């Protein structure tokens, strides 16, 4: 998939269209075919060359030590300071006046923070943390909305060798407490409150509740944001504006080992207890920097980059903080929701700052579709030149809409597959090279190796880095068959679980089990099919929930769909679909359901026809926007609905159940 091809136009099936980059884009692109050639010739040498993107206080003696697999050591013996790489060296290079962060507050306030400003702020915070007695190796919990101080805190931790652990500010006190306890955090950094759709919601209160009786927590540092009243524990609580703001803006960064832990980030697994994913310094920064530069075609000093993720998720860590800042980027950081004060907010921001690279999630693209194209159409989005997608497979309809309506038909879309565990992008198009297919993440990046395998560890179809001449369309499990620099180094406090979760399935082969289904198409392009527990088996046919969802969304009346496999006595699993209609739709009843079922049969084949289709007002989603199919499966299998504590909006399940009992 590395050569642009003639556009293959198909009126009916958007996934069958191919979008090669324009010659103009290719001519100016950061990444050319030489990257793959270099990686194929010498993978470790390739990564050593990428690591030269960074400033090293001391060089490494060995690129990769895999002798203690599955715990990798990258750039063995090398020493660097991550914050120095993200801040100081840009100032030293004479770019101190460049804006690092165009921060846009939800109520409409804004701040432009230059690299010099950032250096002073990070140094102040580092001096304060040191005064509080924190030393390299200590953990700091960060429970903050999207304010600049959150990024400053992360970088101050990196500067001192403190390990940060961000907890998304939408999580409950209980969730925060379990993470603070697990990581044994000494400091919790938070704000008084956070803006949410024009209202100030308290945040410090939640921290008070969470850390009550937590022996490990010595201090709570509070940034004033909403002027919300807070209760105060003398001796423990400190205001940012009374401490950090008065600290010295001078601080010299010390180098740390390449394998020094940079952060722990909790992510949910198949069991109840979240896993603290450990990332270290040199390899992580190398791969986030490399991917941000090449996948987004980022041009230092020229682009205005915007990743809409929250810093509480891995996308915010790698593609708001470490990747972009290591590359000296100028970026937009927006505090609020996309419909505050109205649905024009993102497009207003793009116009205001001249955003050139926009990276978001499919769920948001589908929300924009639901709101209608007249909203983005009312804006000048001509500054945009690269669009990105992450978090779940993007269905071809959403891809096409994103391409046409937001990208004006001219912007490459990079559909980036990766995970909290992988630390950085693994599978994605390179925008100047890859001819993209809507809905496919296309190919492993140069330097990355993956395979699609079956239960018995047979390698299916074309393997990564190969020519893509796969032949058959085969489906299986995605594995990563070679270590990569930004790979997780373990699960905090539970290395057995680390081995069990990711490395036991293909222990003999030494492959990392990603937990995602995938297939190659006949051209060797990789299609991610969702988590393997979301891949259904109907009468012996493997059918992806994503494929059925895409088919439903391609019906003009459907805005969003979620599909689950419900156990079925005859077919193993039966497909049950939940659909949200587009605004203004009034169709209902048996005839409408039949029309949708037939539509799916037409798009994929009769075997993919849902057994049942339920029209619902909303879908249950986690705070990071992932559909909680487990809950839908409970409804589909007539069970009592399970644990809803990680839902963004707990009332959704009630409104779904209510809607279902009402006549169609
Ligand atoms: C970065 C992030 C990881 C899971 C992953 C997969 C899904 C992410 C995707 C994608 C298809 C993409 N996923 N990006 N599936 N295409 N471009 O989202 O990390 O929150 O840990 O989720 O998300 O299922 O396994 P994380």
TrEMBL record:
rRNA processing listed as a keyword: no
Catalytic activities: acetate + ATP + CoA = acetyl-CoA + AMP + diphosphate
Binding site for Mg(2+): 553, 555, 558
Disordered as annotated region, ranges: 1-27
Annotated EC: 6.2.1.1
Biased composition (Polar residues): 1-12
Domain annotation Acetyl-coenzyme A synthetase N-terminal: ranges: 36-86
Pfam families (alphabetical): ACAS_N (PF16177), AMP-binding (PF00501), AMP-binding_C (PF13193)
InterPro entries per record: Ac_CoA_lig, ACAS_N, AMP-bd_C, AMP-bd_C_sf, AMP-binding_CS, AMP-dep_synth/lig_dom, ANL_N_sf
Superkingdom, taxonomy of origin: Bacteria
Keywords: Acetylation, ATP-binding, Ligase, Magnesium, Metal-binding, Nucleotide-binding
Modified residues (N6-acetyllysine): 626
Annotated ranges, domain AMP-dependent synthetase/ligase: 93-490
Chain positions recorded as ATP binding sites: 391-393, 415-420, 516, 531, 542
Residue stretches in coiled coil: none
Residue ranges of domain AMP-binding enzyme C-terminal in the record: 547-626
Post-translational modification note: Acetylated. Deacetylation by the SIR2-homolog deacetylase activates the enzyme.
Cofactor(s) essential for the protein: Mg(2+)
Function text: Catalyzes the conversion of acetate into acetyl-CoA (AcCoA), an essential intermediate at the junction of anabolic and catabolic pathways. AcsA undergoes a two-step reaction. In the first half reaction, AcsA combines acetate with ATP to form acetyl-adenylate (AcAMP) intermediate. In the second half reaction, it can then transfer the acetyl group from AcAMP to the sulfhydryl group of CoA, forming the product AcCoA.
Similarity comment: family membership: Belongs to the ATP-dependent AMP-binding enzyme family.
HAMAP family the record matches: Ac_CoA_synth
Protein name: Acetyl-coenzyme A synthetase
Organism: Rhodococcus antarcticus
